Amino acid sequence: MNAMTALEGILPVNxxxxxxxxxxxxxxxxxxGVKRVGHTGTLDPQVTGVLPLCLGRATRVAEYVQQLPKxxxxxxxxxxxxxxEDWTGAVVARADRVELSEELIRKTLQSFEGEIExxxxxxxxxxxxxxxxxxxxxxxxxxxxxxxxxxIYEIDPLNIDVGSAMPTVRFRVRCSKGTYIRTLCxxxxxxxxxxxxxxxxxxxxxxxxxxxxxxxxxxxxxxxxSGELFSRIIPTDQAIAHFPDFRLSHRDAxxxxxxxxxxxxxxxxxxxxxxxxxxxxxxxxxxxIGVFRYDPTADVFRPEKVFVSNIDKG
Length: 314
Fold this sequence. Notes:
By secondary structure, this protein is α+β, with helices and mostly antiparallel strands. The strands form 4 sheets. Strands 1, 2, 3, 4, 7, 10, 11, 12 and 13 form a 9-stranded mixed beta sheet that branches. The chain has 3 domains: 3-67 and 208-239, Pseudouridine synthase (2-Layer Sandwich); 70-206, Pseudouridine synthase (2-Layer Sandwich), CATH 3.30.2350; 243-313, PUA domain (Archaeosine Trna-guanine Transglycosylase, Chain: A, domain 4). The protein has 8 helices and 18 strands. α2 (21-32) runs parallel beside α7.
């Protein structure tokens, strides 16, 4: 495997605390000497965990990886609130006394499963009138924010401690893109009748990429130096394995590589079940051609991201 192939794909990084996502991108870019590096969804500086980075041409699928569900392990502390909704902010409210049962907390957590509405926190990167909310917040300004619909697929308590003056709840949550876990913590507290704050957060997966696959920055540096890093890079097409895949005939694969549309009739004998949206196409040898999108007006799949230009070159 040559260096170019080795340094193209998805590099699963375990983001350390104290780094912004952009800091991690810049650090990896320097370590690898690769200009095209992009992340697939920001993590706050104090948050750790799964941060997939796209290397080389894989940056073209970053938007698809960003859309994948995320899983987190979070800690919620009930009894006080901050202006940032997490433990880094200034305290803005306190409860004199917190009295809650473990049963009530469990039921309240479960009530958040499904589609919910969230109001983005002031300390976030959402733009209002061309300015990011965190910039306004730092200036002491407040902005009206529109609620957003997100999905909580699963939320499960891992540990509930109601014996202390400020009860803590550690939970696992699987959610859609764009979910603010600190806002979720605040909303859970509100549903329980108390101020609350997120006091710890780790992203444990993005799609099928899990924390145990991820590398620390020092690991990346040492593996790159020894020439072994390529074995830890996830191939581009595997990172978007949630899209249906089809192996084309040589003739159709050549046409697809040239950016030509592929009719659904060409997939009739290819386990085609009427899939719509985005699919992955491969040549007869299993070589990834690219991502194609269904066009219902012509009943064809049109190229969205093509990764090879000439099938004959192999």
